[in-house]
């Protein structure tokens, strides 16, 4: 179509590549101003303005689709479509040709203050050349941006969206650098360290812990997905390192503050790559906190639990469903099982005298460990030197290797040694200088040892699961006739029990038979 003469209706189309550009000098407002000035000069009446903040390589943009729909509705009265520059329509030859055809079909006549569109061969040649130049500029900008991002990543800076637990802050001479984002960072530290030390036995338990934290970000369904948990556990950024294999950026120290140590990160990877554990039960909840932990005394399988409907209300029970078990289907009231367990847990509380003695002993061991760690620095430096020699030897072999499989094996071994060297160097830096004082480190631990019952009584289901793991070395067997069998208690309480062989004693549970040894021979008298 030929350009329309004055007194015609016109629409303006403006586009920027992203939202940030809307506030800059080349943003939407400046484009609209120039287009309106052109419309006034040509005598066109601007009836509507359509905008987009999307890449020029895209065709299906909301603003463009809305404009095409508008033009189709008014096709009997063709409208002029004014754009500031040919690159505002599209930044790709194919996209430009498709949009030009769509505009023409909808009855739009394209005009611009920067270019006179025409139907003759020379005008179309110039238009196509400008579209090609626009596409080249877009691709070149993309390549330059990618190269700058890769170069920055090679220098140890994260260049993508800040991961959960971090936020960007501008630092003089460095640009934007990741910094801790509280309280999310502290929640994440507890989750990562908890998985590393097996406080959380599975990723499902990490998921439940994060979902229980009101301040931890979740999706629209108020859920932390399994994939997100796995991504968090596999992210070396939290250990102060970064790695981008797609850009050939090898594992290297980052310029940001670490949330966990490299040793903790390595422990997480060892667990993830180890033998998979049985997934955590989804039916463990506040109604039955002992489900899965208490075993049937007859067959040794975990007791299940349920609510049984009575005449007036529902009643909670624990029971065994194992085929062939003589106790199958014979339920035990929840208050009976959990009541006896609570008495068992209360029995772990040491006397005040014993606790003070144990606390003094732990403090002496702490100070002794600090002194020992100082001397370990020399041996670790020797290990680093030995690793350096091994890496040098492998590098020599790598140069002479011809087989791709051999090269990959050497590269993997070198990578493992470099990670081990980083861990050792991190330990050397911290030798003899504990990150926290004895009080800060063991405050919660000593509170737990003083009376584990308090954490069980007042804690969430996650805390109760932690009590079970810390207080007992194995699951508990329960008999309907005699109650809990002798429990296998954890090492800290065993140590306290050994001290009991002197004049100091552990607290005796009410309703239990006298102890023949530290926690030995415990039986209930309830039948």
Structure description:
This protein is of the alpha/beta class and 527 residues long. It is built from 16 helices and 14 strands. The protein has helices at 28-42, 62-73, 86-89, 93-106, 121-154, 184-196, 203-211, 226-233, 262-272, 334-346, 352-400, 404-430, 438-450, 452-458, 461-471, 491-499; strands spanning 9-16, 45-53, 79-83, 108-111, 166-171, 175-180, 241-244, 249-253, 294-296, 304-309, 314-319, 332-333, 476-479, 483-484. It has a four-stranded parallel beta sheet, with helices on both faces. A three-stranded mixed beta sheet has the order 9-13-14, covered by helices on one side. Strand 7 and strand 8 (249-253) form a beta hairpin. Helix 2 packs parallel to helix 4 and helix 6 (184-196) packs across helix 9 (262-272). The chain is elongated, with a radius of gyration of 35 Å. The N and C termini lie far apart (98 Å). The model is unreliable at 502-527 (pLDDT under 50).
């Amino acid at each position: 179509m030929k350009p329309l003469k004055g007194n015609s209706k016109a629409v303006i189309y403006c586009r920027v590549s992203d939202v940030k550009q809307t506030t800059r000098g080349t943003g939407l407002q400046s484009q609209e101003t120039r287009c309106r000035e052109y419309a006034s000069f040509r005598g066109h009446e601007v009836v509507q303005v359509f905008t987009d903040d999307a890449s020029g390589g895209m065709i299906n943009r909301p603003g463009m689709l809305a404009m095409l729909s508008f033009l189709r509705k008014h096709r009997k009265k063709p409208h002029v479509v004014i754009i500031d520059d040919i690159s505002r329509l599209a930044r790709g030859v194919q996209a430009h040709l498709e949009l030009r055809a769509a505009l023409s079909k909808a009855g739009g006549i394209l005009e611009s203050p920067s270019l006179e569109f025409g139907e003759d061969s020379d005008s179309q040649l110039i238009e196509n050349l400008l579209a090609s130049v626009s596409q080249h500029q877009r691709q070149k900008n993309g390549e330059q941006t990618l190269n700058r991002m890769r170069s920055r990543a090679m220098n140890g800076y994260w260049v993508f969206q800040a991961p959960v637990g971090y936020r960007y802050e501008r630092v003089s001479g460095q640009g934007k650098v990741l910094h801790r984002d509280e309280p999310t960072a502290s929640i994440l530290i507890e989750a990562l360290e908890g998985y590393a030390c097996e406080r959380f036995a599975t990723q499902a338990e990490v998921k439940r812990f994060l979902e229980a934290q009101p301040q931890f970000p979740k999706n629209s369904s108020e859920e932390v997905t399994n994939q997100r948990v796995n991504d968090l556990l596999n992210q070396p950024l939290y250990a102060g390192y970064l790695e981008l294999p797609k850009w050939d950026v090898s594992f290297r120290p980052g310029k940001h503050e670490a949330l966990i140590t490299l040793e903790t990160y390595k422990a997480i990877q060892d667990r993830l790559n180890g033998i998979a554990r049985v997934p955590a039960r989804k039916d463990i909840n506040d109604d039955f906190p002992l489900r899965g932990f208490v075993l049937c005394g007859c067959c040794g399988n975990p007791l299940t639990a349920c609510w049984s409907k009575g005449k007036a209300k529902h009643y909670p029970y624990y029971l065994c469903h194992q085929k062939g078990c003589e106790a199958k289907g014979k339920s035990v009231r929840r208050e009976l099982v959990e009541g006896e367990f609570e008495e068992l847990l209360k029995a772990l509380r040491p006397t005040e005298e014993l606790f003070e003695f144990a606390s003094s002993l732990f403090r002496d061991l702490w100070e002794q460990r600090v002194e020992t760690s100082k001397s370990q620095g020399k041996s670790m430096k020797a290990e680093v030197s030995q690793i350096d020699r091994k890496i040098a030897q492998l590098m020599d072999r790598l140069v002479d290797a011809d087989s791709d499989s051999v090269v990959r094996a050497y590269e993997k071994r070198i990578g493992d040694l470099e990670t081990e060297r980083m861990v050792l160097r991190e330990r050397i830096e911290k030798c003899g200088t504990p990150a926290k004082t004895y009080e800060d480190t063991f405050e919660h631990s000593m509170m737990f040892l003083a009376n584990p019952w308090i954490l069980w009584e007042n804690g969430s289901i996650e805390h109760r699961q932690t009590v079970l793991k810390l207080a007992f070395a194995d699951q508990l067997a329960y008999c309907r006739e005699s109650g809990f069998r002798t429990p296998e208690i954890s090492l800290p309480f065993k140590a306290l029990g050994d001290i009991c062989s002197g004049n100091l004693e552990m607290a005796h549970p009410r309703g239990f038979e006298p102890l023949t040894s530290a926690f030995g021979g415990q039986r209930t008298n309830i039948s």
